[in-house]
Amino acid sequence: MDFQPSARILDLCGRIREILDRDVLPLEPDFLTKGFDAVKAPLDVVRGKVKAAGLWAPNHPVEYGGMGLDLVDHGLVSEVLGRCPLGHYAFGCQAPDAGNIEMLHLYGTPEQKAEWMPRMVGGERSCFVMTERDNSGANPIFLKTTARREGDEWVLNGNKWFITSAPGCVVAFVMAATDPSAGPHARQSVIIVPGGTPGFIVERNTPVMGHANTDLFAHCEVRFDNCRVPYSNLLGREGQAFHMAQARLGPGRIHHCMRWLGICARSLELMCQHASSRVIGEPDRRMAESDIIRAWIAEAAAGITAARLITLYTAWRIEKVGAKEARNDISMIKYHCAEVLQKTVDRALQVHGSLGMTDYTVLAYFYREERASRIYDGPDEVHKLAVAKRVLSQGGKL
Amino acid sequence: MDFQPSARILDLCGRIREILDRDVLPLEPDFLTKGFDAVKAPLDVVRGKVKAAGLWAPNHPVEYGGMGLDLVDHGLVSEVLGRCPLGHYAFGCQAPDAGNIEMLHLYGTPEQKAEWMPRMVGGERSCFVMTERDNSGANPIFLKTTARREGDEWVLNGNKWFITSAPGCVVAFVMAATDPSAGPHARQSVIIVPGGTPGFIVERNTPVMGHANTDLFAHCEVRFDNCRVPYSNLLGREGQAFHMAQARLGPGRIHHCMRWLGICARSLELMCQHASSRVIGEPDRRMAESDIIRAWIAEAAAGITAARLITLYTAWRIEKVGAKEARNDISMIKYHCAEVLQKTVDRALQVHGSLGMTDYTVLAYFYREERASRIYDGPDEVHKLAVAKRVLSQGGKL
Amino acid sequence: MDFQPSARILDLCGRIREILDRDVLPLEPDFLTKGFDAVKAPLDVVRGKVKAAGLWAPNHPVEYGGMGLDLVDHGLVSEVLGRCPLGHYAFGCQAPDAGNIEMLHLYGTPEQKAEWMPRMVGGERSCFVMTERDNSGANPIFLKTTARREGDEWVLNGNKWFITSAPGCVVAFVMAATDPSAGPHARQSVIIVPGGTPGFIVERNTPVMGHANTDLFAHCEVRFDNCRVPYSNLLGREGQAFHMAQARLGPGRIHHCMRWLGICARSLELMCQHASSRVIGEPDRRMAESDIIRAWIAEAAAGITAARLITLYTAWRIEKVGAKEARNDISMIKYHCAEVLQKTVDRALQVHGSLGMTDYTVLAYFYREERASRIYDGPDEVHKLAVAKRVLSQGGKL
Amino acid sequence: MDFQPSARILDLCGRIREILDRDVLPLEPDFLTKGFDAVKAPLDVVRGKVKAAGLWAPNHPVEYGGMGLDLVDHGLVSEVLGRCPLGHYAFGCQAPDAGNIEMLHLYGTPEQKAEWMPRMVGGERSCFVMTERDNSGANPIFLKTTARREGDEWVLNGNKWFITSAPGCVVAFVMAATDPSAGPHARQSVIIVPGGTPGFIVERNTPVMGHANTDLFAHCEVRFDNCRVPYSNLLGREGQAFHMAQARLGPGRIHHCMRWLGICARSLELMCQHASSRVIGEPDRRMAESDIIRAWIAEAAAGITAARLITLYTAWRIEKVGAKEARNDISMIKYHCAEVLQKTVDRALQVHGSLGMTDYTVLAYFYREERASRIYDGPDEVHKLAVAKRVLSQGGKL
After folding, report:
1. Chain B contacts in chain C segment 64-123 (CB below 8 A)
2. Per-residue model confidence as pLDDT tens digits over C261-274
């Protein structure tokens, strides 16, 4: 066993961290108090610098302008970028585009790839249109939106919600029932719908945790009203959507968990720094002298370190045996890391007292927005049941 | 021992609940997605109905137009009102006014009371100006804002923050050092500063959890710049501010804890209703059939019931032996109830999945805004240390 | 609402505590290191003193020599006695006899009562024979031991286990299937089997947590091999066993939960005293100065106080509306109090370090033996599911 | 990074597991109900087989008859052996001998090694004599036992306790103050005291969790009463004991944590198997169908996997950068793994219900005996404070 990352990735992470600290973090305060629109223009400047530095799209194929890192290495990058909510966007590897690009790369026809890969890897936004309000994506057999074939066209009808990054996207990957009478996992297909297609209507940006966000950060209610696209916009084969959605999740999980651990690292640092500077008693007694705070720091340190190793291990497993074989690990890191995330951020906020409630630190943002970590891509409880089923079938052997 | 509330208070609570459900709850969706300004006018209509029904200001003195309930009974009312973020405002017993009114009633001169009590009990807003950014109210010996006597005037200078309800308030109760050289607990006095006094400047509404709120819901940064008020605006005696602030906390704690338990009751109901209606499998398997969800419901039910009893017990103790004698109980319910609150709301949100993240239910509001419950009026950890000190001094006897 | 216990019960508790501290606690060290046999003789002397002081059998009917306390008052007594593992025995109100006496008093014929009540209330031991190894008492429909009627006799056959207090008992109350073809809750009856009846065989004392205990503290494997008793030994009516067993649980729950809270009170005191005396640094820094320990003390103090109130509230409810109506409360205190118990004892042990692992304090005993609290009388999880079912049926209303 | 153990160690672990399952596990029931004495003779036969198979003393130097595995590989072996309380003894790598052998190998003179290494590696028992009742080993500056030089002899006086494996040991390594006036970390030395030396008195085996165990499993109170040994029995240099004790802890921590994870693996398997076979409802509903149990299984699976990786990572770090540089990791795995251990065993026991309380499964043994894991080698809280201190000094960076 060898726990040493390669010298190359350590060097890359160092260079990425440098740009993040110097160019992205200074934009964070405006993002927190004024929203994404306020930082979009300067962020685009940063994106240019990142491309110039050869650090763009670390996870995407080299042939389309990315760096082609493997999952372990991109995990380490994602951890660095996770320190700031703007990190992944600045370096061209933000969700949901990352997953869409992977999916298109795996399943697209040469024509589809030629049309969309350069634009998407280049930084234009896409969305993944799956979840319905009354029918969660956790169990796609309940999804009701349809794509009916008429001649050489698909006609889409139905309502979707929580569609991240929908407003202004250049292309949408839509999961729709093409054969509602088929077996539960063969009903749905993925259809490519260009932004602006008539009948593809973004109804509104859902207010989430007090905000209707915009752009990449918007979660939208979307309606398809006799929306027509060519039959050739089918991605992969008919009925394959369930399997494509599953395939998206493995690498995406690594991306998310390592991002969460970047959030944890940042939160722990903020917690330590605030506790070290805050005077809570005379003469000059600092909050960091309290054993309660120290216990929190120590528990965070161990929890983060262990969560990091199980995530990197899972990345290594996916590379080695494939996402299917590693699906138990992929489920485990979901709920394991999400718990470390919530606990670490919560305690960091608590150490900051009323300051922690404000948008003068990033902690209130992490606290409320990343609450979604226990929900998206399948609630933790769904993953726990999936893991338990497998462990039980093995008589408890891991 | 007799755990039966009086018939009178049960009847009152029933009538209050009726108005809350019929007139206040329908305003909640607009409050959640558009803010307090969007509901202020209709809420004022409700306030009129509440007054007409004789249910106004349940905790305040009868002589000024309140109902004069004791702490146990007002606790039960606060629990009902806590079900909706607008409840206390609609019935004229919202913080921080409630505490300010109590303080003024206890310490004010006849002239001060004649001037402010009718307006404040009547529903005009006040604020309590204590906390400073670098010097939390948890330890007032560090507060730096001063009130210097010049002839028959006070001259106030300094910066405060997290001043709830500051914009548009008719009067402020300001804690300021009148004798910085005195002993730590005798340095501060409370000065009454009418809204609009020159030099009393609300600099901005601090963005909290993504919002710079308004009105009653704003937490403000406030500056005193040679702000002058008459010497007779001193509340109580010089150097008495620390003790006044302490005295504010006992009844206020009952108010808050019972309010939190109202939030818990509402959250548990939303959790049960959503779990009962949400289909998660075929044929028609509901989320409520999962034992995981059931365990959460059962743990919430017991936790809420126990927390409710310890809070009502504390109210009873304050009435019987006084807040000073009951100070250990007052500290215990702070952290005990805040934990029940956070856990219950968190799980209710989780049951709602992505819907729980949106502002289409009140849970996302409770989740982010009530995170402050573990911080305001002294962080939980401060209360724990205070309790432990006393328990240790008693050799562990409760 | 009135949270004040009566003057009479406070006086009684004071007198009981005095005897407990003076006469029972000194026997504890021998009990812990040498077992029950080593203290049985001196305990019998104490029992005599208790009877002489008029404090015997606080919960049992006055007509049979008990004190006839109601459930709230006996709860307060049980809390005092719970401080020492020998307390309930010394005062004649130990399980399982307490429940057996209640059951006999409620369901027995005059002849049955005349025969057994004086002996049992007087202090002779009985047992309750329900659980089977492969068929837990939690769901009696699975119990397989039978009582077949032959003429005017019952003939019992089958195996039972975890029969507390079986060796040397004067009488056993045996749950056996008298009509296996009846509905699930009407299959079982309770048969009275005197100790020493041929065919009633105590096979062995099951080793539990490292010990095969003796006497009252033994949990036994019992076999019925054509064991014959008169038909008149039927308690209550045929098929009524399920309901009798349920009826036993309400008052028994109060007894147990208040006993656990007595354990908690004792553990908290030991924790405080050890932490106050143990030097962990120079110069003379005590363990009690660590905020970690202080947080534990404060959490225990609040948790115990709240658990105590919900238990007394449940006792009051049973007295007022009956065990059936209060069954949700009865279930809630089971898992709520058992959790407080386990956490408090665990932390008290931790504070004692290696000393806490030894039998030189009672904590190691509490830690291992009271682990059963989460299991007996139905595992916590079963109670949680029962509570959730009712709460869900009420739409989440408590 | 490469998470793949070597083919050699996987093969070795397979062979070790085979002997463990075939020859050691069958002895466990007698050990649990009758004690170590009942299995000592058959265990010695197993030890012979192990030696014959070339699997003896996996962690010890090849030159003395061991296998010389590195820390990562021995960690994997320790995990396998941890499945049964008798595993390490059967394979000649049990504590406290393992640590003593390491210490002697590092610090002993050629003569000392020649005298003791063959016997100790060969399987004879030794003990490490540090802790005092009133002065824990966690802070050796408080230890009071002295070794006074008289001519060419040491004269030892003082009381020790919790001396594991003292009765019948062939040699003791005794920590005693040789210069009480020196700096805190230079006061103590380690003296080699052969078993049977006059004045080296094992006073009694402390009853721990209900038992005064014997032999390897005894924790003893030991007295030195003018016990004389030659000056040449000094191990290492005078004043070096503190550093030797520290050096013992790094590799010992790997040994213990991986052993705990072996316990967890066994407990999880028992939990799954019992839950799969236990019927809790009709028709044939198994406990394993409950989502509560499934959530426990899933949380255990992830927790064990992550804890395993952080432990193996720490082993790798010790090998790579040394125990001193890795001391933060060594502290972190202590409390991180101990928590996983306690939670996993507790839940496995709960799933077994009353059976889990008995000695018919190994779980009750794990539950009570391994409670010590959070205490020995420094309580978890001490390690947390040490970690926090370092993390704070790094500004929160891990």
Report:
1. 72
2. 999 999 999 999 99
pLDDT > 80? residue D135: no
C-alpha span between A11 and A22 (Å, rounded): 17
- DSSP 8-class letter at C114: H
- Report the C-alpha dihedral over residues A347, A352, A356, A359, rounded to 10 degrees: -130
Fold of D7-104: Butyryl-Coa Dehydrogenase, subunit A; domain 1 (1.10.540)
With beta carbons less than 8 A apart as the criterion, state whether B359 and B365 touch: yes
> Hey, what's the torsion of the CAs at B196, B199, B204, B205, to 10 degrees?
-50
Asked whether the beta carbons of residue A302 and residue D276 sit closer than 8 angstroms, the reply is no
Query: What percent of chain B has pLDDT above 70?
Result: 99
Cβ(A109)–Cβ(A117) below 8 Å: no
CA B328 to mean position of chain CA atoms:
19
Question: Above 70 in pLDDT, residue D265?
Answer: yes
Nearest to A40 by CA among A191, A258, A217, A219: A217
Domain spans of chain A, in order of start:
7-105, 126-235, 242-393
Among the listed residues B82, B106, B101, the one whose alpha carbon sits nearest the alpha carbon of residue B13? B82
Give every residue of chain B whose pLDDT is below 70, as ranges.
136-139
Residues of chain A with pLDDT under 50: none
With H, G, I as helix, E, B as strand and everything else as coil, classify residue C334. helix
Return the CATH superfamily for domain C242-393. Butyryl-CoA Dehydrogenase, subunit A, domain 3 (1.20.140.10)
d(CA B172, CA B166): 8
DSSP tag of D288? G
Give C137's pLDDT tier (boundaries 50, 70, 90).
low
In whole angstroms, give the CA distance from residue A305 to residue C245: 51
Residue D4, C-beta contacts closer than 8 angstroms, at least 6 positions apart = A1
> Are C117 and C100 contacting, i.e. CB atoms less than 8 angstroms apart?
no
DSSP string, C242-272: HHHHHHHHHHHHHHHHHHHHHHHHHHHHHHH
- Span A7-105: which CATH code? 1.10.540.10
pLDDT at D186 over 80: yes
Q: Which of A220-224, B167-171, C104-108, C179-183 has the lowest mean pLDDT?
A: C179-183
D62 touching A (Cβ < 8 Å): no
**DSSP secondary structure string, A259-280?**
HHHHHHHHHHHHHHHHHHH-EE
CATH architecture of B126-235: Beta Barrel (2.40)
Closest chain B CA to residue A290: B381
**ipTM here:** 0.96
Taking the mean position of all CA atoms in its chain, how far away is CA B55?
A: 19
Q: Which two tokens stand for residue D138?
A: 């966690």
Are B364 and A211 a contacting pair at CB < 8 A?
Answer: no
Residue of C nearest to A295 (CA): C292
Place of tokens 């108010």: B255
Q: Does D159 touch chain B (CB under 8 A)?
A: no
Residues 197-256 of D with CB under 8 A from A: none
Q: Is C285 on the interface with D (CB under 8 A)?
A: no
Q: What tokens were used for B226?
A: 């040679």
Cα angle at C261 between C257 and C267, to 5 degrees?
A: 145
Q: What is the pLDDT of residue C248?
A: 82
Q: What is the pLDDT of residues D342-355, one digit of tens each?
A: 999 999 999 999 99
CB of B220 closer than 8 Å to CB of B163: yes
Q: Specify which residues A171 forms β-bridges with.
A: A126, A194
How far is CA A15 from each of CA A80, A255, A259, B189, rounded to the nearest angstrom?
A: 10, 19, 17, 54
Does an H or E element contain D274, and which?
helix D241-277
Looking at the complex, does the CB of residue D131 fall below 8 Å from at least one CB of chain C?
A: yes
**Segment A68-83, tens digit of pLDDT:** 999 999 999 999 999 9
Pairing of strands C153-164, B153-164: unpaired
